[in-house]
Amino acid sequence: MKTLTALTNKCGNLNGHGTKAKQSLILSLLLITLSPGAQAFYPIEINANPNGMKIEYQASNALNSVILQVKNQEAYAIQCRAHFRNGPETPTIRTQLVAPEAESIFTASFQRSIIRIRIDLECVNEGEPFNRLKGLK
To answer: Phi/psi class of residue 101: alpha, beta or left (left: φ > 0; alpha: ψ in -120 to 50)?
Structure first.
């Protein structure tokens, strides 16, 4: 179901579609990302500012896309924002509400070839404003 969130971000809302359609989309994405040659290897740097909240995060890549998984280990919902930067391209910003004890997927795709990705991740309590992360304009 983690992959479904990423597909929802890219393909729109899947509510109202049957479980088989969702499973089919998930299987298709997994086959694409796990196929030989689909994996790209470049360093991913994560600058996390969880503001004292218990979160886990992990980044991976596929072709010219980056996938960031964020798991909320708190008993309440938190809001997270990720800035994906790839050299001179305009940063991609994703913001999501992460339910208690749940996981969310943040994705970004880039036009230029990727040499290094920098991700600035910040999480705050639901409804609170985000702080300005260092180095971001």
So the answer is: left
